[in-house]
Q: What sequence folds into this?
């Protein structure tokens, strides 16, 4: 596989001091690995977003720190701002190109399923990513799942049907179903579903009515409180 380049620079700022860098379009990150000291770095938010969009998160990155310190790394973990949806921190794991790694690779669903387009079915994706083991150079950035083979409701795409290099070891069982198309609900099933929902709503309303205080009882309770105060 081809590595992708990502420029970075050494970082001294820690904790709240990193907020200034974030405002300038930088992401605080750290690089660590087996037998090496952790190193704090900055990467540009825009550069990282472009890398993710083009190559995904399952790819070997040529991380160049301060223009000279080259390291082969994988994205181990990312943190995001839940409001702005921007990256706030990245963990990079340094790898050796001669040692196998274990990581997750995302499945990329492509094509159009005839059972959905022509028969009105619903595409069911059972798996979003799979665990793999291989040398870093053999790590795929993604694994395609061509759903155009799903022509009937009986068709299935299993792990064994995916095009995965023999250099990549997959831990999941070959017969595991990745995707299928479920038939649309019949009018009878939809009617039964609506009746069930209506019945559930009625039960809830009944509980609310039973637990609500009666107007007369409220008054009596108020009178009792007044009597107690008078005493």
A:
């Amino acid at each position: 596989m081809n590595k992708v380049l990502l420029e970075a620079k050494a970082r001294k700022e820690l904790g709240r001091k990193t907020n200034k860098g974030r405002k300038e379009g930088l992401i605080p990150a750290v690089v660590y690995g087996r037998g090496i000291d952790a190193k704090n770095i900055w990467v540009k938010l825009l550069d990282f977003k472009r890398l993710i969009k083009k190559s995904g998160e399952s790819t070997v990155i040529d991380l160049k720190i301060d223009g000279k310190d080259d390291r082969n790394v994988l994205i181990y973990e990312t943190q995001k701002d839940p409001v702005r949806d921007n990256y706030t921190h990245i963990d990079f794991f340094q790898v050796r190109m001669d040692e196998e790694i274990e990581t997750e690779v995302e499945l990329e669903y492509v094509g159009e399923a005839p059972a959905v387009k022509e028969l009105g079915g619903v595409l069911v994706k059972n798996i979003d990513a799979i665990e793999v083991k291989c040398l870093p150079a053999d790590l795929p950035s993604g694994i395609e799942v061509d759903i155009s083979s799903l022509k009937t409701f009986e068709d299935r795409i299993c792990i064994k049907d995916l095009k995965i290099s023999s250099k990549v070891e997959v831990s999941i069982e070959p017969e595991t179903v990745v995707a299928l198309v479920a038939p649309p609900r019949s009018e009878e099933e939809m009617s039964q579903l609506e009746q069930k929902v209506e019945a559930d709503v009625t039960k809830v309303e009944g509980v609310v009515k039973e637990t609500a205080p009666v107007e007369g009882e409220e008054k009596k309770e108020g009178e009792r409180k007044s009597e107690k105060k008078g005493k």
User: Anything to note?
Assistant: The domain at 102-182 is CATH 2.170.120.20 (RNA Polymerase Alpha Subunit; Chain A, domain 2).
